[in-house]
Amino acid sequence: MKTAIKYICNAGLFYTRLKKHFCPKCGRKLELRYISKTVSSNSLEAKNYDFSVGDTFLRGDVEFRTAYFHCPNCQLDISIEEMKKYEKLF
Prior knowledge:
The chain has 90 residues and is of the alpha+beta class. Helix content is 18%, strand content 36%. It has helices spanning 13-18, 80-89, and strands spanning 4-8, 31-40, 52-53, 56-57, 61-70, 77-79. Strands 1, 2, 5 and 6 form a four-stranded mixed β-sheet that branches. A two-stranded antiparallel sheet has the order 3-4. A hairpin with a 2-residue loop joins β3 (52-53) and β4 (56-57).
């Protein structure tokens, strides 16, 4: 059975894909990466996840992919939310 994929990102396409982001630690350009977790809609853990997409409800195993930024130079991983807070300061 194929696993459905749901992307979790608290930012728009422009912010994550088109805007350039730089590492707060070393100043190098950041890469967009994803961390994945597969959750069954029938499991106890499912109550912690949103299985809806528009007016559709995903059933079975769903792979949730959460976006984050990664620095290839200093290996810093930073969430979208943390990056937004950092960029507001400057």
